[in-house]
Write a structure and sequence with these properties.
The protein has nine helices and no strands. The chain is mainly α. It is elongated and about 60 Å long.
Length: 198
């Protein structure tokens, strides 16, 4: 009997955690100083529940950052299953742009969470880097981008994303930038010879 009762509790706990993360993402993007009590209230959970999941502001901010990075990374494989590799890569770059804008909004909260002595390190980009490599290798194998482009090359090329003001109308600028990068990736692709590529 006890095991049957535990499963719904676990799924309730998971729902609470996800709701806290959703609310916190919006509120901390709006203002890095949003009180945790306000986030708990808007998420519809008590203080005890909130602190069980996130014992500190730093823990909450780092989990939002990791959660958003994971979402971007995990979208790569499903995109590859349903689209041509170059289209999958381009759509994934749009998701990365949305992440960049969210991260820019959260930058103050992340800085506060990681700047004091003994505070957590900002998580690395490993899952996102692996996702980029997966997409690049698939597009290279399909002959739709030039060979030899690495994830590091891609991130350097799209680094301009992180200079766009997230409070402006950022999407048209991000789209132009990413289209430009995608055009550059296609130059010299084996499959582009009929289109004037080398």
């Amino acid at each position: 009997m006890r095991q049957q009762k535990d499963a719904p509790l676990r799924s309730d706990a998971q729902r609470n955690r996800e709701r806290i993360l959703e609310v916190a993402l919006v509120e901390l993007t709006r203002s890095a100083d949003t009180p945790l009590s306000a986030i708990a209230r808007k998420a519809g959970v008590g203080q005890g529940t909130f602190y069980r999941h996130f014992p500190s502001r730093e823990a909450l901010v780092m989990e939002i950052y990791r959660h958003e990075m994971r979402q971007v990374a995990e979208s790569a494989a499903p995109l590859l299953e349903s689209r041509e590799p170059d289209r999958a890569l381009r759509e994934w770059m749009d998701r990365l742009a949305r992440f960049a804008m969210t991260k820019a909004g959260l930058a103050d909260a992340i800085r506060q969470a990681t700047s004091a002595p003994g505070k957590p390190q900002k998580p690395g980009h490993t899952p996102v880097t692996e996702a980029a490599e997966l997409l690049l290798r698939a597009a290279e194998k399909a002959g739709s981008i030039r060979p030899g482009i690495t994830a590091d090359d891609l991130f350097l090329a799209i680094g301009g994303l992180w200079t766009i003001d997230p409070h402006d109308d950022w999407q048209p600028r991000a789209t132009r930038l990413l289209d430009l990068v995608m055009d550059a990736l296609r130059v010299g692709a084996p499959g582009a010879e009929g289109l004037g590529g080398g």
